[in-house]
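Lecture 7 notes: from sequence to structure.
We start with the chain below.
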Amino acid sequence: MREVITETVTTRAAELAARGQIAVRIHEQPWQSPAGPATCPVDSVPRLFQLDMLGPMETNPPAHSKGRELTQTAIEMVVNLVPAVGSTIAVALMAGLNHKLNQRRERWLTELAEAVEELNQRFDGFDPDALVDNDAFVDAVMTATHSVYRTSQHEKIEMLRNAVLNSAMPGAPELDIQQLYFDLIDRLTPTHMRLLTLLNDPPDWFDRHPELSRPQFSLSSNRVQLISAALPDLGAQGQAIIERFFAALADSGLVNGSLHGMMTASGAWQPMTTDHASAFLAFVRDPR
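Predicted structure tokens for the same chain:
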């Protein structure tokens, strides 16, 4: 299954390159650092699947193109073979970063393939081999993979994986909505997501976290008090920080109302999320 997903990423990248949207390099041989394999112990991979996505296709004049800059840099490295701490560190740093990114991609694709295999075993009629021809799934894999390169946060990677899986399920949102959700995953932090989940169903949050003490309201209540009890780490940073995280959710159309003002004792336990938020949370929930 991992080979199917890797082929999907490679195929889509080639299509985007053909349309001039990104630049790619597919290596005929396993990649090695300009400083040699000893400096960058990258594991060998099949030649068709060792692919670098270099970002947007270069549109600058040849004199200023990225390809020319990279060539010039390589020439300078050869010319400056005289021992120099700066150049040696730069080569080692770039080799190490490339190795780290390759490891991150390898782990991401492997875990995604394992999750797809679980879906195959649990749902009748789910055909993993058909995913390569599923445009929504291919788009989701490509979008999520770009995001994985930019984060080491386990919670965010987990949401990306769940979103990719849900893109292949019956009844998945239309493509434009999916891309909107992927953008939210990319922008929101795990703290944003914990706050959103809490505000979507406060009683359920405490049911799933029995180690937390439910706040005891008398005649009136305050949502800041509720959030501080439900998310102690966030509450410890003070009301101003809580308001900043809440504002980001409000600006994204995920919550209604205000944190300020007093309400009845039962009012703080009511959901504050919009229908948009409920659908988004469903999209990032593990379908397995």
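Points to note: Confidence is low (pLDDT under 50) at residues 21-65. Strands lie at 22-26, 51-56, 220-221, 263-264.
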